[in-house]
Design goal:
The chain is an alpha/beta fold and 395 residues long. The protein has 16 helices and seven strands.
């Protein structure tokens, strides 16, 4: 070894000892070390110790946001208190035994890191001083705690909020009575162990569909997730909870002849207005109407872009448990809405731009084979309403 290499080795060893003395690393972990046989040499994992106490608390607000993809104020003032209440409610039901539970703040921050990055469980565990199995258990626990609050965060507009959304949508392209826009997007996953063929896209990838209705401020007002990508948007829509509930009580959702906007994959209904199908015979009025429907519907595309740009894990969701994927997506949708409560989130446009680039690439690589037009040749009430709207819009 040359003198130069000796100097580097000494420096590295000294730096490592300094980190150990400062308490930034720990070796002990019951999840990863088997103490039954001490005769064999074991690789003891090295992890950062007290990362939150020694590092995260000193992050500036912008650095905290860049790592966890939400603001410090949303985390400590909204998300953490909400999860603590849910955890207390769960603990009152479940009888806790065994080792002390990992602090909920650490669990929540580690799960946010997982959702915000494509980092492996091992690397996230090293950062938060958690074994892979402990991190996995924490992930499932936190996801369940978040979705316990879904009905309080993903909310259909009513009353004053409904009127406010109508006004915000009207400002976009002067189309009246719009309270939402509906669309679907793919979430790429690893090949499921069962029935993998129904999840295959045209590019031989695997995906599930997230259907969402969004308001004018990019918040989700309804989500439905879990169907394989081979199922058409029309069929997913007709089997969604929101569709079934609206058929049971349309006035509850649309009290004054309001409606949502869909694209050609959605059926023409009195409460779901779609553009005219262009077969080369559209009038100028119909083309103008289509153009402005598209302008108004851009909110749902921007919502998806923000979702993928903020929570980068969903660009490819590498999960072995296919049955838990819908819950994970739903939890991220709850977080999406909570983040939008912070009007001063300066990173939103950056996230949207990142997400738009991803969605453009996704459409190029994985065009949806099931996005055919749902329009038939019957004169339905939905088509009559659309014709009336088009005439009034171009009057």
């Amino acid at each position: 070894m040359t003198s130069h290499h000796k100097i580097l080795a000494i420096a590295a060893n000294s730096s490592f000892k300094l980190l150990l003395d400062c308490g930034l690393f720990t070796f002990d972990d019951e999840d990863d070390v088997n103490d039954e046989d001490s005769t064999y040499e074991k690789d003891v994992p090295i992890r950062i110790k007290n990362y939150i106490e020694n590092v995260v608390v000193y992050y500036s607000d912008s650095v905290f946001q860049s790592h966890f993809r939400l603001s410090r104020s949303v985390f400590y003032n909204t998300l953490l208190p909400m999860i603590e209440v849910s955890q207390n409610n769960m603990n009152n039901i479940e009888k806790k035994t065994g080792r002390p539970e990992i602090p909920i703040e650490k669990q929540l921050l580690s799960v946010l890191w997982i959702l915000a990055t494509p980092d492996s469980y091992r690397s996230v565990g090293e950062k938060f001083d958690m074994g892979k199995s402990s991190l996995s258990v924490s992930f499932f626990r936190v996801i369940n705690l978040i979705i316990m609050n879904a009905s309080n965060v993903i909310i259909w507009p009513h009353g004053e909020e409904l009127e406010r959304q109508k006004e915000l949508f009207f400002r976009m392209a002067s189309i009246p009575n719009v309270i939402g826009a509906v669309d679907g997007t793919f979430i790429s996953i690893k090949a499921p162990k069962q029935d993998a063929e129904v999840y295959v896209t045209r590019k031989c990838n695997y995906a599930i569909t997230l259907q969402a209705i969004t308001n004018a401020e990019l918040k989700f007002t309804d989500v439905f997730v879990g169907y394989p990508c081979s199922v058409s948007d029309t069929r997913i829509f007709r089997n969604s909870d929101i569709y079934v509930n609206i058929l049971k009580n349309e006035k509850f959702y649309f009290p004054n002849d309001e409606h949502i906007l869909g694209d050609k994959a959605y059926p023409p209904l009195t409460w779901c207005v779609e553009p005219y199908i262009n077969r080369g015979r559209l009038t100028e009025a119909q083309k103008n109407f289509n153009f402005n429907i598209s302008r108004t519907r851009q909110t749902v595309e921007r919502s998806f872009a923000l979702f993928f740009g903020r929570f980068r894990r969903f660009k490819y969701l590498d999960m072995s448990r296919t049955d838990f994927i819908p819950s994970t997506v739903l939890a991220a949708c709850v977080l999406h809405n909570l983040c939008l409560k912070n009007k001063s989130d300066a990173n939103i446009n950056d996230y949207i731009e990142e997400g738009m680039n991803f969605l453009r690439h996704q459409r190029t690589e994985c065009p949806n084979p099931a996005r055919e037009s749902s329009e038939d040749h019957r004169r339905t009430d939905g088509k009559l309403k659309r014709d009336t709207m088009c005439e009034l819009y171009n009057a």
